[in-house]
Amino acid sequence: MEEVNATLGSILVDVRTNRLKISLRKASDLIGISHNYLSLLEKGVDPRNNRPVQVTPEILKKIAEAYELPIEELLNMAGFLTEFETEKINLLEMLQSSKEVTFGDKVFSSEEKRKLLTIIDTIWGESK
């Protein structure tokens, strides 16, 4: 488990109060956690012991789904993703490489990868 930083807490408060416009209790019901725990996550520090609040990826997933936020963003804020894991992916290089490219369970064949490059080139004209 990683410590929750102030940025994550402030994002949670902002989304709950400004975008969703719901109470802490309603938000905790929506997420499926106690209102006390959500309050601690929003504060980032447990006032009883002045220690950072711990959060798991599973709880972050619940929050992401309830608040309609990208899970990667929450995982990154909570320290679960490294900078490397959040870097951009070069689709052109991926499709031109001999590495296996998947979409869900589907593995693209070389021909399908070429077709995707043609489609991208038609849209943006940048894959050459």
Automatic annotation (TrEMBL):
Coiled coil: none annotated. It comes from the Bacteria. This is Helix-turn-helix domain-containing protein. Residues 12-74 form the HTH cro/C1-type domain.
